Amino acid sequence: MKDIARQNMSIKVESMDLLNGQIKMEAHASAIYLAMASWCEQNGFFTSAKFFYKQTEEERGHMMKIFQFLVDVGGNPISPEVKNINHDYSSIVDVFETTLEHEVAVTKSIHNIVLKARELGDITTERFLDWFVLEQVEEENTIRDILDMIEVTGTEGVGLQMIDNKVNDWME
Amino acid sequence: MKVVYKSEFYTLYQSKKDRYHYLDMGQKTVRLSFCQLLALRHKVLSIPIENHFDSYSNQHGFEVLMLCNKEHLFVLNTLEVLDLKNLVENSLSAMGVSSKSVLLLQ
Ligand SMILES: [Fe+2]
Ligand SMILES: [Fe+2]
């Protein structure tokens, strides 16, 4: 008896479901950052807007990386539905704080998939996620640094404009 | 053909000759590649069964299911949908690519 299922797909179905969930989360992140870019544009934070345009692209890149992985392992990647995108922020500080919260949530989600894959003995998925685990360290660190910079600069007087200009330091 | 899993209304077979699965849906048997089986699973598991108990969201309690690039069309009632959800999950476990097993309706 040929093992058709295993011959067609090299990861577990549960991992596939979780990775499809992650595709959705990355797409959601991409959409949130685009909404943040819009807010920044409308409130005069043009450098921050550029920063979020870049983030939007990066998140889409993450999404496509997982999508392609599911194709490579013979899974069934699902194009995500994205809704409930918040466009309201009380300040630029609120924007970056929300960004950090979001990145932390993404990190937790990825760690959860790693643990589940490990439980399932799905080494392929676990190894695939190594890149994402390290990428999240970088992402969280960037936003934390920006929040530290905001703290030091202060939001009084020209502070807000200085903050926006300094965001440039985090855009290679 | 070897039986992969038999639920109350449906049976999934794996062929010994070709690389296909055959799903006996009662009225007819559908030939599925593994990819198509995964697509079927996604469709079936995405059906919001709660709506069947809400006369607003799904007044008549039926689902229309299209399979294999719209080659086949099935109309399923609530019990059939539940049974099919049961079948897809347990079939994948039986095939060793999933560790989930569910028991519905039994
Ligand atoms: Fe990401
Ligand atoms: Fe991110």
UniProtKB/TrEMBL annotation, chain A:
Gene3D superfamilies: 1.20.1260.10. The keyword Transmembrane does not apply. Fe cation binds at residues 26, 59, 62, 103, 136. One of its GO terms (molecular function) is ferric iron binding. GO terms for biological process: intracellular iron ion homeostasis; iron ion transport. Its EC number is 1.16.3.2. CDD domains: Nonheme_Ferritin. It catalyses: 4 Fe(2+) + O2 + 6 H2O = 4 iron(III) oxide-hydroxide + 12 H(+). May alleviate iron toxicity in the presence of oxygen. Belongs to the ferritin family. Prokaryotic subfamily. This is Ferritin.
Automatic annotation (TrEMBL), chain B:
This is Uncharacterized protein.
